[in-house]
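[Automated response] Your request has been received and processed.

Submitted sequence:
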Amino acid sequence: MRRQSKPGTINIGEHPACSIKKKPEGPRRNHRLRRIVPRGLLTLALLSLCAPSPAHCQPTYQANLAAASNRIASQQLPDGAILTDSTSIDPYFANYAAIGWLNDTRVNRIPAVEAWIKWYIAHLNWPDSEGLRGTVYNYSYDPATHVETSTGAYDSADANAATFLQLADALWNTNDPSAQALIKTTIGEYNLNLTGNVITGLQQPNGLVNAAPNYKVEYLMDNAEDWAGLQAFAHLASRVWNDTTAQNWYQAHASGIQSAIQSVLYIPATRLYYPYAGSTAPDMATFYPDAVAQLWPGLEGVVTPAQAKISYANFLNAWPGWTGLSFATESSPYPWCAISYAAYLAGDTPSINKYIATLHAKRVQLDPGEAGWFMRTNAALAALH
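Generated structure:
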C-alpha cells in the first residue's frame, strides 16, 4: 500500500502494478560519494584535437567518439557487465557509459548496450538488505578468475535506478527493432516499474528523494537524475505499453521532484542551489558538490534552457579555469566530462575545445562513465558541424 500524502503533496511510495516477488537478499554497505577511479581508463592522448576551423572540427569530434566508444567496448565483459576499472563494476557509471555509447554511429553498439541492460536486470535485488526491491549493488571483479562478487552496497540507490531508466528510454528511442523488442518484451514493464519504485519509495513528503534507505540525504544531483529517470519511464509506459495510469503516476512523482528542487533547493536571491536539502548556502569556491552540482538541473532537463545557462554562467564565474582542470587535484583527479556537456547546452563551444585540448595535453584518463559523457558532447558538436 502507498503511504497517503499530506494535503498539497503527491502520494509517495510504490506503484501498485509492481507486485511483490521474493528473491534472496544480501548484505549492505553505506557509501554515497561519487568515487574517483584511477585505473583501467581511457587515454585521450590518442585523440585528435579540435582546430578552430569548423571544417576541421567535425572529423575530430568523430575521432573522439570512436576512441571513447572503443575504450568502453574494451571494458565490457562477456556477460555484458561494463567495468568501471579493472576490478569493479559500478552500475551508475556503466549506465552513463551505455547512454553515451548509443551515440556511436560508426559501429552499432546497440547489442552491447542490450547486453549491459540484461546484466543490470539479472542483478536486481529482491530485496536488498534495507528491504528495497529493484536496487543493484556494485560488484567487484577478479580478472584472474573472472568472478564477479557483490559488494553488498551501492553508492546511491536512487541514482542507479534513475540513470538506468534514462538508458532504457534512450535505447527505445533508437527505433532499433531488436532494442525495442528487448524493452517491450524481454525486460518488460514490470522490471522497469520496479526500478521506478526505487525512486518513489525513497521520495519524501517534501517531494525530494533520499539517496538510499540508510542514507537519508536529498542531493541536488541525485534529484535531478531522479526527475529525468521518472520522466523517462513515464514516456516508456505510454509509448510502449499504452499504460496511461503508470504514465500519470510517475509524471506526478516527477513533478513533485521538480517542484521541490525549485522550492526547497533553489535560492532566488543568488540564483544558486543548495547542494542538498538542509545544507548551508553553496560555497562556489568549493568545487564538489557545491559548484558542480549547480549544473545538474540543466544537464538533466529539469529547468528551462534559460535557467540552465544562468547556472552554467554562475559556475563559469566561479571556475573560469575549468577547461584547464583547475578543479582537479592529485588525490581527486576526476575530469568531470559532464561539464563539457553543460557547456554545449550553454553554447560555449570554445570552452569545450579548450577542455579537449587540456585532456590531450595532460594525458587525462577517463573511466567508461566519463567516456559516456565525452561521447555525448562530441556527438552533439559533430552534429552542429
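Summary generated for your ticket: Residues 1-12, 16-41, 44-52 have pLDDT under 50 and may be disordered. The first helix runs from residue 54 to 74.
If you did not submit this request, please reply to this message.
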